[in-house]
């Protein structure tokens, strides 16, 4: 994907911060890049928040959720991806997001990091989970994870998304993954999963036969509700078509 880059400069007080925005394969997702002021204190880690309840461990995410039209947020080391609702426009939403980012990072800088982007509790939990998983990994799973980390994640993150390893079924050769950020709700996510990720894993690791996406419980509920509403709309449209036209 060729991203369209846009640079915005915002000044508050004496600090001058620069942000870049990059389009993603998902028209409802925009990647905000902060090359001068890292967003997360650790590299190669992302956190995704789909609601204010999930964002209780991120003061920055909570501030962004106050902006009308923000659907979900993913934080990375030097970037932030925002998914918006369909009925909102980036021309008005993007400046608001950058303004919140600028004010928050400026305040965090003045207070020497005492206003964290994410809580230390969340960072500790993520690190402990990672270490616990690695201890039980087989050699084959370690190979799969290494390929994801070195060849797949960088490309996904360039598009404003991320990918999380969720498991491997050795009997069926199925790798379970979770797409995040811009890639999660992108119309091309299935192509990315099957045509890109699955093909690469199968090419380098012969034990891999298939890749499947894992959804969070709330995402599964939302998808089922969307399918239900879509069926209702189709049914109504069919009934209207079958009705006889009114006579004069």
UniProtKB/TrEMBL annotation:
GO terms for biological process: [4Fe-4S] cluster assembly. Coiled coil: none annotated. GO terms for cellular component: mitochondrial matrix. One of its GO terms (molecular function) is iron ion binding. It comes from the Eukaryota. Residues 19-108 form the Scaffold protein Nfu/NifU N-terminal domain. Belongs to the NifU family. This is Scaffold protein Nfu/NifU N-terminal domain-containing protein. The lineage of its organism: Eukaryota, Fungi, Dikarya, Ascomycota, Saccharomycotina.
């Amino acid at each position: 994907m060729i991203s369209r880059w846009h640079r915005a400069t915002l000044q508050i007080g004496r600090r001058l911060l620069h942000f870049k925005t990059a389009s993603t394969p998902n028209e409802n997702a925009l990647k905000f890049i902060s090359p001068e002021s890292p967003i997360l204190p650790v590299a190669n880690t992302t956190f995704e928040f789909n609601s204010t309840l999930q964002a209780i461990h991120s003061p920055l995410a909570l501030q962004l959720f106050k902006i009308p039209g923000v659907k979900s947020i993913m934080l990375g080391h030097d970037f932030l991806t925002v998914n918006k609702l369909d009925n909102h426009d980036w021309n008005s939403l993007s400046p608001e997001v950058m303004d919140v980012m600028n004010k928050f990072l400026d305040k965090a800088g003045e207070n020497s990091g005492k206003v964290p982007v994410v809580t230390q509790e969340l960072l500790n939990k993520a690190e402990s989970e990672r270490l616990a998983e690695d201890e039980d990994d087989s050699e084959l799973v370690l190979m799969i994870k290494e390929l994801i980390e070195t060849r797949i994640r960088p490309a996904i993150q360039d598009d404003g998304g991320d990918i999380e390893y969720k498991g491997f079924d050795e009997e069926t050769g199925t790798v379970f993954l979770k797409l995040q950020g811009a890639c999660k709700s992108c119309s091309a996510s299935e192509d990315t999963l099957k045509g890109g990720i699955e093909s690469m894993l199968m090419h380098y690791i012969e034990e891999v036969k298939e890749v499947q996406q894992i959804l969070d419980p709330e995402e599964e509920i939302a998808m089922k509700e969307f399918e239900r509403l879509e069926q209702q709309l189709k049914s109504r449209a069919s009934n209207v078509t079958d009705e006889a036209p009114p006579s004069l």
